[in-house]
Amino acid sequence: MKFPHILASLIATAFAASAAHGADIHLTVEGVANADGKVMIALFDKASEFPRGKLSLANMVPAAPGSVKVVFAGVIPGKYAISVYHDVNGNQRLDSNMVGIPSEPYGFSRDARGKMGPPSFDDAAFEVGKDNVNLTLRVK
After folding, report:
1. C-alpha 45: how far from its chain's center?
2. pLDDT at 20
3. Are strands 57-62 and 78-87 parallel, antiparallel or unpaired?
4. pLDDT, mean of residues 125-139
5. Residue-level pLDDT at 21
6. Residue 132 contacts by C-beta under 8 Å, 6 or more apart in sequence?
7. Among candidate residues 29, 125, 133, 16, the one with its CA nearest the CA of residue 75
8. pLDDT surpassing 50 at residue 138
9. If you count DSSP H runs as helices and E runs as strands, how many of each does the chain have, helices first?
C-alpha cells in the first residue's frame, strides 16, 4: 500500500514546483457590451511579437455584459503585455474595416492606446514578480 504515499508525494512536489515558477495574473476586462461571442486574451513576453505575433499564453472566456475575469496561473517572472478583444461574432479573429481599423472592441494592458496603430510593448507592459498581479483593462 505504498501507492497512496507516492501519489501524495508527487502531488505535493507538483504543487510546490508550480508555486515556485511564478505568480498569478488576475485580469478583469471591463466594457464588455453584451454576452455575444467570447473575450479573447493574449499574454506576450516579447516586444517583437506584440500584439500580433507569437504569444506566451492565451485564454478565452464567454462574454458577459459589463466585465469578465480571467486568471493566468504560475506566470514566470518577467515583463509582459496583454491584448484583448471581444470576438462578438465568434469567428476567432479581430475583425476590421476596409482600412484595417478594428470593428470589434479591443484593449491592451495599462489601457495603452497607439496613435496610428497598436501601442508599443513598453506602453502596455507590466512586471510580474513573485507576488500575484491584479490588472484591469477596458475594451473600446
Report:
1. 11
2. 55
3. unpaired
4. 98
5. 72
6. 23, 24, 25, 26
7. 133
8. yes
9. 2, 8
What are the cell numbers at 91?
Answer: 469567428
Question: Residue type for 103, please?
Answer: S
Residue 37 C-alpha cell reads as 461571442
Cell of 12: 505535493
> What is the architecture, at CATH level 2, of domain 22-138?
Sandwich (2.60)
Q: Write down how long the chain is.
A: 140
CA angle at 108 for the pair 123 and 121, rounded to the nearest 5°: 35
Average pLDDT over residues 51-75: 96
Phi-psi sector, 101: left (phi>0), alpha (psi -120 to 50), beta: beta
**What is the DSSP-derived secondary structure letter of residue 131?**
S
Domains of the chain: which residue ranges? 22-138
- The residue type at 115: K
| CB count in 10 Å sphere of residue 101 | 8
Following DSSP, what letter does each residue of 63-109 receive, concatenated? --SEEEEEEEEEEPSEEEEEEEEEETTSSSS--B-TTS-BSS-EEEG
Q: Give the residue from 131, 90, 111 showing the smallest Cα distance to 29.
A: 111
